[in-house]
TrEMBL record:
Family: Belongs to the GATS family.
Organism placement in taxonomy: Eukaryota, Metazoa, Chordata, Craniata, Vertebrata
GO CC terms, sorted: cytosol
Domain CASTOR ACT span(s) in chain numbering: 31-98, 221-282
Protein name as catalogued: Cytosolic arginine sensor for mTORC1 subunit 1
Function: Functions as an intracellular arginine sensor within the amino acid-sensing branch of the TORC1 signaling pathway. As a homodimer or a heterodimer with CASTOR2, binds and inhibits the GATOR subcomplex GATOR2 and thereby mTORC1. Binding of arginine to CASTOR1 allosterically disrupts the interaction of CASTOR1-containing dimers with GATOR2 which can in turn activate mTORC1 and the TORC1 signaling pathway.
One Pfam family this sequence matches: ACT_7
Gene expressing this chain: Castor1
Keywords: Cytoplasm, Phosphoprotein, Ubl conjugation
Keyword Cytoplasm: yes
Matches recorded under InterPro entries: ACT-like_dom_sf, CASTOR1_ACT-like, CASTOR_ACT_dom, CASTOR_fam, CASTOR_mTORC1
Assembly notes: Forms homodimers and heterodimers with CASTOR2. Interacts with the GATOR2 complex which is composed of MIOS, SEC13, SEH1L, WDR24 and WDR59; the interaction is negatively regulated by arginine. Interacts with TM4SF5; the interaction is positively regulated by leucine and is negatively regulated by arginine.
Taxonomic superkingdom: Eukaryota
Keyword Cytoplasm: yes
Amino acid sequence: CVRLCPALWGHSPQCPLSLAELPPSEFMQVADSTWLVLSVVSNGREPPGCQATGVTKIARSVIAPLAEHHVSVLMLSTYQTDFILVRERDLPVVIHTLAGEFDIYKEESGECVPVTCDDVSNGFLKPKPLASPTLHPVQSPQTRFCVLTVAPDTLPAIATMLIDVLFYSHSPPWDAAPGSQDLDSITFFSFSLIDGYISIVMDADTQKRFPSDLLLTSSTGELWRMVRIGGQPLGFDECGIVAQIAEPLAAADISAYYISTFNFDHALVPEEGIAEVIQLLQQRQESGR
């Protein structure tokens, strides 16, 4: 099933993050949209281990159909699950697209209420045929990353270190041009706190600065490599960016941890599979020319 959560962020008076409370700043850019969150919940009919984890498990059933219907999405993988953000104005198209495959629920006052196509039929427009999507360049830095979580009650013990890593020690110069970073070794740190669950992505060298007994990872402790999508900021109006990465990985049963950001998209894949991933994506680009 698909669970539709309340608005998460965006330029809207209804946004629960109270964006209006932030002081105006020439350095802050805000996307002119309100975004809703979709989470995909297994119905239990698929046997464990039948397909890859991460964004690839929903590539065919959610990401690809939305791309075909010209719906732009933001992907946010976390340690616990994956979320798809869609613009509120696209909700009628999203519901009509997914209703044939999923049971869809919306969250109201903490309760999940079924949603039908009739609930959002007003304003629904059938999508126009799309031109071939732009195939964006992909780059793979040599940096090795860790995907971690931490128990909320231990967060104060690493709070000072988190602040230093987030805002000081690894911050690029304020006047650095976008995309000017040397991709042989990329600086990337992601922290998310959703419903009390914490997810962290950091490079292997940064992980050594934290107490090892407080950072939790999978039993295998695997390292990840990154594929960065886009040679320039992607924007929010183009669709199919996530699909062009997720679909070939899903076809090859390769797990991926996907994070969309304001400027670029990033897919993390297990380190031992990076060569195969690069080959798959290069073949896709060549076939699309």
